Amino acid sequence: MNLVRVCDDECKGCAICVSVCPKGCLAMSGELNAKGYEYVSFIENSPCTACGLCFLSCPEPSALTVCRIKEES
Ligand code: SF4
Ligand code: SF4
Fold it and tell me: Is 53 helix (H, G, I), strand (E, B) or coil?
């Protein structure tokens, strides 16, 4: 299961990542960070493919980290 970690205080709340994710894994959190922006959150157990589109489209280089989790064989 892959996932995306969000650094809440780096997010500017532009929602670009939400709109580009083809799997609907990201959503606005409804919470404000220390800078007053509503930050994004990763929806737990959503079907992230670790495609990296969210990271590549985010204007804040430190806001998102895509984690590809290898399945045990
Ligand atoms: S890595 Fe791809 S599938 Fe996963 S949250 Fe980002 S855009 Fe969506
Ligand atoms: S694209 Fe980046 S700055 Fe914009 S909401 Fe997503 S994580 Fe936050």
Answer: helix
Cβ of 40 closer than 6 Å to ligand 2, yes or no, is yes
pTM for the full model? Answer: 0.94
The two tokens of residue 30 are: 């409804």
Task: List the chain pLDDT tens, one digit each, 73 residues.
Answer: 899 999 999 999 999 999 999 999 999 999 999 999 999 999 999 999 999 999 999 999 999 999 999 877 6
DSSP symbol at 20? H
Domain ranges of the chain: 3-67
Nearest protein CA to atom 1 of ligand 2, as residue: 58
Is the CATH number 3.30.70.20 carried by domain 3-67?
yes
